[in-house]
Amino acid sequence: MADFKQNYFQRRTKDRGPRSNNRIMSQEVQVISSDGKNLGILNTQEAINMAKNEGLDLIEIAQNAKPPVCKIMDMGKFKYDAQKKANKAKKKQKKVELKEIKLRPVTEIHDYSFKIKNAQKFLSKGDKVKFTIKFKGRELQHSNLGHELMDKIKTDIEKLGKVELQPKFEGKQMIMVIQPI
Question: Do 75 and 22 share a structural domain?
Fold first, then answer.
């Protein structure tokens, strides 16, 4: 019973990174030397011994190939380079946000122009803009005012963005999404 508990509660660690040295499962591997030369297909144990003679590791680079491709290199350097590459890719990512601008069908001209300037600023930064027109009470009977306002927005913003989601009603509000060009 004690043996069962020990195995059951033992922490399971997830394998991180590529297999190296004795963790390589295949009997034969395609080996690339530390200076980039192709050494051909070798027995795995022989390749591991070659790597140890150089003071390096045998790292499995393409495990799905037949036979798997392994390279002789330092494991610490390999992990460091992989981390650097991941950080560089993460820095280059641009997270697109969805900014919302709320209007009413009876919004005055000054307020409208102020909100359009904000929308243009958001689009120039690369964010999407969601326009929402809320209707209250009897304003719903005049939905044509909402359609006219949305058409005006489209013409005012056509230089910086294009319509991703055409104007449509969702309950008591009309929405439209514009994405940057």
Answer: yes
User: How does residue 19 score in pLDDT terms, banded at 50, 70 and 90?
Assistant: confident
Q: Are residues 69 and 108 in the same domain?
A: no
Under a CB-based contact definition with an 8 Å cutoff, are residues 104 and 94 in contact? Answer: no
Model pLDDT for residues 28-46, shown as the tens digit of each residue: 899 998 888 888 888 888 8
Instruction: Say if CB 74 and CB 57 are below 8 A apart.
Output: yes
For residues 69 and 106, membership in a common domain is answered with: no
Tokens describing residue 126? 């690369």
For the entire predicted model, the pTM comes to 0.53
As a whole number of angstroms, the distance between CA 1 and CA 78 comes to: 43
Q: What are the beta bridge partners of residue 129?
A: 99, 178
Whole-number Å distance between alpha carbons of 101 and 87: 34
